[in-house]
Structures are given as structure tokens and as C-alpha cells.
Amino acid sequence: MKNYNRNLPIAVFLLAMAAVIFVPFASAADTADKKPIPAAPAKPAEKKETNPVKTETEADKDKKGGNQVKKTPVDAKKHKRHRAENPPGKLDPLPNERLNVRQVMEILKTTRDLNGKNLSGLYLVGLDLSRCNLRGADLSGANLVRADFSESVLERADLSGADMRMTDLRTTGLRGARLSGARLDGAVWQDGRVCANGSTGVCR
Q1: What does the alpha-carbon distance between residue 156 and residue 158 come to, in Å, rounded to a whole number?
Q2: Residue 83 vs residues 71, 77, 140, 155: alpha-carbon distances, Å
Q3: Which of 40, 54, 126, 132 has the fewest Cβ atoms surrounding its Cβ within 10 A?
Q4: Inter-residue contact 176 to 156 (CB < 8 Å)
Q5: 153 pLDDT exceeds 50?
Q6: Residues 183, 167: Cα–Cα separation, whole Å
Q7: CA–CA distance from 22 to each of 2, 9, 29, 98, 146 (Å)?
């Protein structure tokens, strides 16, 4: 019994020492097991590609260099617009532009003003051109057989080389008109007399 009582404190001491040694190790193991799992890094949100609409200024910048659009000359643009607005057969031709027969007929329906117009070489046989303004008009080489020019103004008109046989020229104004090479056989002159056969440039 005495031995038991003597060994009891030793046993208690040993148990205490074991507890002191074991508890830190157990706490360390628990701590190691309870370490937080590192979270996976969050992926950055994907940026949506946008296609902003280019302003006019940016579009103009894109044209620099080899992609720059060549400008059409101003005169060419005007001519193109004029032709689009006035296709063949319509009125308002370009200055000194040669008219066709249809254009002449359209003018005669309205104003009868052919002042300075280019009618050179046209086939105008038997056409009623009475009371027309033909001042400065170009009728050179035109076929004017039996055309009616009565009471028209032909001042400074170019009638050179025109076929004017049997045309009516009564009371017309021919001041400054060019008639060189014009055939006047059977034409009725300003004063009412009929030109003899073989009259060229001058009524005989």
C-alpha cells in the first residue's frame, strides 16, 4: 500500500507531462487540417467588342492615303448633273450643244426662241420656222428645203452651205447673215421675188 501511494504522484506527473506534450501536437494537427482552401482567382469579365459608328470626321480620316476618293472636277459634275436632268430630247441644252430634231420641235411648241442655237446639219425639210428668233443661230449645212422662215429674225445666223431651195424668206431680217454656198433656187426672198435657178449665196 505504501508503494502504491508513493507511485501515484509519479503516475500523475507522467500523465500531466504526456498531456502537456500531446495537446500542442494535436492542436497543430487540427490547425493544419483546418487551413482555408485558397479560392481560385476570379476570371476577369470578358469585354464585349463594340463597333462604334464612325463619325464623318473619322470616315474622312480613313480616306487619307491610297484609299482617298478622287474628287471629280467641278465642270464634269455640272455636265453630268445637267445631262441627268435634261436627257436627250429635253430642253435646256448645254451652251453651243448641237440640238436634235426632237429638241427643236419641243422649243417650237413653246417659245420659238432658237437664239444662238446650234442646228447645224439638221434635216429640217418643210419645217415651219416662221416668227422664230434665230438670231446668231448655226444652220450651216442644214437641209432647209421648203422651210418657212417668214417673219423670222435671221440676223448674224450662219446659213453657209445650207440647202435653202424653195424656202420662204419674206420679211425676214438677214442683216449680217452668212449665206456663202447656200443654195437658193426657187426661194422666196425678203422682197417677195423668187430666186432664179443656180442662185448660190445670193438671190438672183
Answers
A1: 7
A2: 19, 10, 25, 30
A3: 40
A4: yes
A5: yes
A6: 10
A7: 31, 20, 11, 121, 141
Angle at the Cα of 85 from the Cα atoms of 112 and 124, rounded to 5 degrees: 35
> Which residue is listed with cell 419645217?
127
pLDDT tens for residues 160-203?
Answer: 999 999 999 998 899 999 999 999 999 999 999 999 999 999 99
Tens digit of pLDDT for each residue in 18-64?
666 655 555 555 555 555 555 555 555 555 555 555 555 554 554 55
Is 0.90 surpassed by the pTM of this model? no
Q: Provide the pLDDT confidence category of residue 69 given band limits of 50, 70 and 90.
A: very low
Secondary element (H or E) of residue 198: none
Amino acid code (one letter) for 67: N
For residues 105 and 86, the answer to whether their CB atoms sit within 8 Å is no
